[in-house]
Write a structure and sequence with these properties.
The complex is a heterodimer.
Chain A: H1 3-37, E1 46-50, E2 60-67, E3 80-89, E4 94-100, E5 105-108, E6 112-115, H2 116-136, E7 142-146, H3 148-157, E8 161-165, E9 169-171, E10 176-178, E11 181-185, H4 187-195, H5 204-228, H6 232-243, E12 245-246, H7 250-261, E13 269-272, E14 275-280, E15 283-288, H8 290-303, H9 317-320
Parallel strand pairs in A: 2-7, 4-13
Antiparallel strand pairs in A: 2-3, 3-4, 5-6, 7-12, 8-11, 9-10, 14-15
Helix pairs in contact in A: 3-4, 3-6, 4-5, 6-7
Chain B: H1 3-38, E1 59-66, H2 74-101, H3 103-106, H4 112-115, H5 120-128, H6 130-133, H7 139-142, E2 143-148, E3 152-159, E4 165-180, E5 185-198, E6 202-211, E7 214-216
Parallel strand pairs in B: 1-3
Antiparallel strand pairs in B: 2-4, 3-4, 4-5, 5-6, 5-7
The chains are: A alpha+beta, B alpha+beta.
Chain lengths: ~325, ~230
Amino acid sequence: MSIVPFRRRIVLLLAFVVAWVAGSALGATEPARRASAAPLFQLEAAHAEYVPVLDGSKPIFVLVIGSDARPDQAVESQRADAVHIVAINPAEHQATIVGIPRDALVDIPGYGQNKINAALFFGGPDLVVESVEELTGLRMDYWAMTGFASFEAMVDDVDGLVVDVPFAMSDEASRAFFDPGVQTLDGDNALAFARNRHDLPSGDFGRSEDQGLLMVSALAQLKKEFNQDPARLLAWVASFVRHGTTTLSLDKVLDLAFTGTTINANKVVNAVFPGGTGMVGAISVVTLDGGTLDAISKDLADDGILKKANVPPSPNESLLGG
Amino acid sequence: MTPNRVQRGESKKRRLPLALLIVPIVLVGIGVAIFLMLGGDDVPIIGGDDEVTPPFDFIVKGASAVATVPHADEATLASTAEDVAQEITPTIDDLFTNGFLDPSNWRDGDYEEVFATFAPDAVATAEESVETLTLGATAGDVFATVDPGKSKLSYQVLFDPDGAVETAVVTVVFRATAERKDGTYLAIVSEGEFFLRQIDGWTITAFDVKRDDHETQPPSPSASTPPSG
């Protein structure tokens, strides 16, 4: 065995070992640096949400009409027990509800002065819209209507409405018997709550506010249920379409419902056009306060939001202790 | 020894140091190459772009119909709802495969295919929600592998008064296990709802998705979940 080949083998072996170690080290260097440069992975619960709200560039006005049609009666050709302007500002996530007492004396296009509730009987929901537009100067984008039976069914379809009944009610005519406080009203009780006026000091005005309260309660419930299970939106939309009558397409109803889920129900202003009661011949009527009506209408026109200064006192103030 | 042999011998003696220089360099190169090919999970594998996406399919737990007319033909609507579920499921399979499982997407943080499923109005919010809707923009820096787990879908289909499909809501529970480069494991859990409508194919118009990722133990070999069918 010669010395030189032996040395060469040793050198080559050493070189290979050095190469293996060096190669491994070099191979490991780059990823180790990358790993250390990597950002910490966030473990906090993440959440992503998008709902297609209606175009927020202008307020949306929906006239909500409650027909006094009994079961087996066509809702379009009876009288309107409830008339509410619902103004929605999608961009600001705000809404305003303004009730028009059903006995309000207004100009009904083509029929002269009469109670607003007669407009439905004379010309259906389109004439109610025309009358309200003439009264307020506000243009209604859509109308939606329901009757007694369909309203009850609508409420029952969503398993009742959770309502904070603001004061005790005991009215035989509407069968509204409620203790104050938060309670779930089924369709029958919700209708009774909406119809009661005999034990309200402000009668028709107070009733209109209560009807608005039901809408605010429904909005709060929709939002709550949607947050817990977004698929519940379909039950609400289906219930509305199944039992209501509207100019809104199903697409729009869906978008409106999505929009509703973005509105803070606690900030919804629920108001009623104020006025006084009087008689025209033998008929009891409501005369709206023209100045307040104009101020509210003009305030709503630009953004659908009613400024605090223009919010009239609650007609149920005496019962609320305010 | 002839002069030629002497010269050759001297010549060999002169070449030996050169070989000693070249051989280690070559071997270092070979060593690096071998390490990269056989090394641990915390280095990029050569040919990583060709990594196989683990096969994945959601388990469909059911589809229900939501009618908008009283006395609807429930049986027909239920059957149509099942058909709709079958139609949409590949879209949702792809959404989560592209968002969480395809290494060529998550290694580069490129989820273009995911966002193509969203409607134009929703896509901006979806892109802003990349960390929730996908494995994340920097997932390639953090994770070595991702394996799907048992994941399920259920459907509610809204029909218009004429019985046509209006909107479908898909409730999703997606699970996967991701191994980080440091050898620890993260359970990926994505839960939520997607609203889809037919706009040039099934398109997501609204969504509400939450992530509930948490640390987890390495999966035992017997606990690996085969893709559901």
